[in-house]
Amino acid sequence: MIYLLLVVTLNLSCVEKKPTEKEVKNTESVLSLKTDTLKFTSAIRAIFQDSKGNYWLGSHNEGVSVYDGKSFEYFTTNDGLSDNQIRSIQEDKNGKIWFGTANGISVYDNGTFTHYPSKNNNPIVDWKATNGDLWFYAWEEDGINRFDGMNRHYLIFPKPKNKNADNTYGVTGISKDKDGNVWIATYAALFNYDGKMVTIFDHDKLNLKENQRLHIRSVLADSKGRIWIGNNGIGVLLMEGNSILNFSEKNNVIHPASTGRGDRSQPGTLEHPFAIEEDAEDNIWFGDVYTGAWKYDGKALTNYSNSDKLSNPMIWTIYKDNKNNLLFGMAEGGVYTFNGKTFDKLF
Can you tell which superkingdom this protein's organism belongs to (predicted)? Predict the structure, then answer.
């Protein structure tokens, strides 16, 4: 009983503690768990291969795991992570691994976690006043975080009028184009930053119909300069030069009875693309919540269902590793590769 009271007291003290702008937690003394196979059962939301070849796998609610080719090592909030939901993984020029979580940013460097809390009391309107190549989701949901290697800069979006009361400007995807411009997907709008100014693509500018709901979940700037936008409910939007069209509608993969509101879709439709990636042959891949993977080769769309192997066909993320292999992070907690016909489990 005394032990339980002590644990409860310690937990409450951690919850009530107010984070500083930069808080360091040393994890060298923590005996992190290691396994021969990946033990995650919640979705794989982020995949990253670092410069040493290690694979970092971010889960929906179980923290992160790193695979060195021999075993899987795990880190959770007990080891210094800001939160156990991992939304993005990046590496800086010094080899530090950065995790965007559901509640703050954590940086891993040789056994030590540096924690940047979720709130920033110094928002910046002038984006040109900052620099740095690391971009992260911002928890205030009206801006984005940018790191210059030393400090975090919370940048405010020049928001358009939000026509959907149930939509927010929480960041759902970030992609850099071949010219270095940053494309930032949020639920309610797409933002483009060219280093000088921010351009807004809202409901009207993306040529949506009056009854169509903008609810962006993914974005990809491909090698040809095209911008692919995954919208939950109305499929894929394609921006090519000055042209913007509904790619899913054009390819007849929207069901005639679709509500466009995110309801469960029928087989053979591409209405809920949560992940978009380009492979080494310039094919564009889409990961749908209900219908598996889709490949566009420049001429035709092909659907590769994974429902025969998985109880949940949802693809959370698609990642191209250092050898140009495509890795698919699944909702049921595994990582799969595609052999040209079917999916094979990698982790």
Answer: Bacteria
Task: Identify the bridge partners of residue 193 per DSSP, sorted by sequence position.
Answer: 182, 198
Determine how many CB atoms are found less than 10 A away from the CB of residue 318.
Answer: 23
Q: How far is CA 283 from CA 224, 327, 337, in A?
A: 11, 14, 15
| Cα–Cα distance, 128 to 155 (Å, whole number) | 10
Distances (CA, A) of 197 to 158, 159, 163, 242: 10, 13, 23, 18
- CA dist 301 and 264 (Å) reads 21
Single out the residue of 219, 222, 233 nearest to residue 289, CA to CA. Answer: 233
Residue pair 296/284 in contact (Cβ under 8 Å)? The answer is: yes
Full pLDDT tens readout for the chain, 347 residues: 344 333 333 333 333 333 334 444 334 334 568 898 999 999 999 999 999 999 999 999 999 999 999 999 999 999 889 999 999 999 998 999 999 999 889 999 988 898 887 777 788 888 988 888 899 887 767 889 998 877 888 899 987 765 666 678 889 999 999 999 999 999 999 999 999 999 999 988 998 988 888 899 999 999 999 999 999 999 999 999 889 999 999 999 999 888 777 788 888 999 999 999 999 999 999 999 999 999 999 999 999 977 666 778 889 999 999 999 999 999 988 999 988 888 889 99
d(CA 68, CA 262): 38
- Distance CA(196)–CA(120), nearest Å, equals 23
Beta-sheet strands, E only, within 81-170:
86-91, 97-101, 104-109, 112-116, 134-137, 143-147, 152-156
- Integer angstrom CA distances of residue 180 from 97, 125, 133, 151: 22, 21, 10, 21
Cα–Cα distance for residue pair 27/96, rounded to 1 Å: 15
Quick one: how many helices (H) and strands (E) in the chain?
2, 29
> What span, in angstroms and rounded, lies between the C-alpha atoms of 316 and 335?
10
40 C-beta neighbours (distance < 10 Å), count: 23
| Residue that has been written with the tokens 């009206």 in this structure | 142
Q: Report the alpha-carbon distance of residue 271 to residue 297 in Å, rounded.
A: 19
